[in-house]
Write a structure and sequence with these properties.
membrane, Acid_resist_chaperone_HdeD, single chain, DUF308_memb
């Protein structure tokens, strides 16, 4: 009988084209960013603030709508309100957003890169990676 974890990873590896597609999209965005740095930086700053605001609104709705089912839903609500307030603050103050964005982006990329490398290392150690 096959190990369930190994089978799950093997199933995931069958969809190899998804990371390829993500990579192609990322390269496309990087070309746009490199060719129009000022415009793209302002756009990314605004988009970041907008997404944080919308996420905060969605989290508030989730917390309130699920208050009967989730024990400790107040913590979710407080976190959602913080996200919402921060998103609105950054929308109103784009200069602050432009100062904070590189630090957040750097932290996210660092953490994500470490996780991706760790996952690939585990796959290699389990003998699940073949080809390139």
């Amino acid at each position: 009988m096959e190990n369930p974890l190994r089978e799950s990873i093997r199933e995931t590896a069958k969809h190899w084209w998804i990371p390829l597609l993500v990579g192609i999209v990322m390269i496309g965005f990087s070309i746009w960013i490199l060719s129009t740095p000022t415009t793209s930086y302002r756009s990314l700053s605004f988009l970041f603030s907008l997404v944080l605001t919308i996420s905060g609104l969605a989290e508030v709705a989730f917390a309130v709508n699920n208050r009967q089912q989730i024990q400790g839903w107040g913590g979710l609500l407080i976190g959602a309100l913080i996200d919402l307030a921060l998103g609105v603050y950054l929308l109103v103050n784009p200069t602050v957003t432009m100062m904070v964005l590189p630090v957040l982006l750097g932290a996210v990329l660092l953490i994500r890169g470490a996780f991706v490398m760790g996952r690939r290392l585990v796959y290699a150690l389990l003998g699940l990676l073949t080809g390139f």
